[in-house]
Amino acid sequence: MTVQAVAKPAWRVADVRSYWPLVVGFGLLVFATMASLAREVWSREIGAHGPIVLATGLWLLVAQRPADAAPAKPGSPWQVLAIAIPGLLLYTFGRAYDFISLEAAALYIIMLAVALRLAGWRAMASHWFPLFYLGFLVPPPGWLIDKATAPLRMFVSQVTTAGMQLAGLPISRDGVTMRVAQYQLLVEDACSGMNSIIGLTAISLLYIYLMHRASWRYALLLCALILPIAVLVNIVRVSVLVLLTYHYGDAVAQGFLHVTTGMALFMLALVLIFGLDALLQRILRRTAA
Predict the structure, then answer these.
(1) Which structural domain, as residue segments, surrounds residue 157?
(2) Strand ranges in 75-180 using DSSP code E only, listed in sequence order
(3) Which one of 20, 64, 150, 238 is most buried, counting C-beta atoms within 10 A?
(4) pLDDT at 101 over 90
């Protein structure tokens, strides 16, 4: 009987006690930025996915770390500094002038530098998805949201107006402004689909990675479904708000139910992703049989 040795992974995270100044300094930056994100971004609809991404991203990093791996091969100090110094400069600028998007992006760059110093390139390559996934903690800047949502807002308002007209409602549209009865509704960024696209993309990518990372072609197919599902769900959301405004008034539609419909339809979008996955899996099994 021959006994074959089991190959061990070629790395593990270095002993952080050897780099405690680096870890402590990074921890202080993380605490300051997380507090700003919680106050300025996570309390808004566009950043509501932030705590979920943070928790699940850290879980992925810990869950994928082998306990019996060989020592890490940290990146050289010059490589680390080449990444960390621009990140620190951007962080200082973003923090000083309260640019939360720039501050969070700079912290992400610094995180990569710290990971390189503690674990090395090989470990970072094997953990590419958790590191990429944590990038969703960086909120997109306002100018980017405005440019990205402009065509989405127009499309959502056009489809919603056409649907409500077919249903017999007295509704008209001027750009992204809809008029129903005596009320005027503006399709803002929150209703354009951008909020759902960012959060839905993050959660869906996590689901796809956990369930289908072995089949990258199938994973790409599911990724391609995220955008149309997000837009469809937001058309439904705007239609519901139009109906609430028409039948119950602007105060009802723009109050508690405005946020509630957003949360409910975000959950609906996730259900659609999971349901389509199950349906496609069943079709593929029948085709292969």
Answers:
(1) 143-288
(2) 171-174, 177-180
(3) 238
(4) yes
Number of H helices, E strands in the chain: 12, 3
* 157-216 residue pLDDT tens: 889 889 988 988 888 888 878 888 788 877 764 455 556 678 888 888 999 898 887 688
Going along the chain, which residue ranges are E strands? Answer: 171-174, 177-180, 183-186
The total of structural domains in the chain comes to 2
Residues 205 and 111 both lie in one domain: no
Confidence of residue 73 (pLDDT cuts 50, 70, 90): confident
Instruction: Assign 41 to helix, strand or coil.
Output: coil
Say if residue 50 is in the same domain as residue 99: yes
**Residues tagged active-site:** 191, 237
Task: State the virtual CA torsion across 82, 86, 87, 92 in degrees, nearest 10.
Answer: 140
| Per-residue exposure over 27-53, b if at least 16 CB sit within 10 Å of its own CB, e if not | eebeeebbebbeebbbeebbbbbbeeb
| Tens of pLDDT, residues 113-155 | 999 988 888 888 888 999 999 999 999 887 787 777 778 888 8
Write the DSSP symbol of residue 249.
-
58 and 188 assigned to the same domain: no
Pairing of strands 171-174, 183-186: unpaired
pTM, 2 dp: 0.81
For residue 11, report the phi and psi dihedrals to the nearest 5 degrees: -160, 160
8 Å CB contact between 157 and 178: yes
Shared domain check, 227 and 276: yes
Q: Tell me, yes or no, whether 27 and 51 share the same domain.
A: yes
Q: Choose the final residue of a domain: 139, 173, 194.
A: 139
Q: What angle is formed at CA 219 by the lines to CA 63 and CA 147, rounded to 5 degrees?
A: 100
Contact between residue 105 and residue 131 where contact means Cβ atoms under 8 Å apart: no
Could you give the C-alpha distances from 182 to 178, 185, 242, in angstroms and in order?
Answer: 11, 10, 12
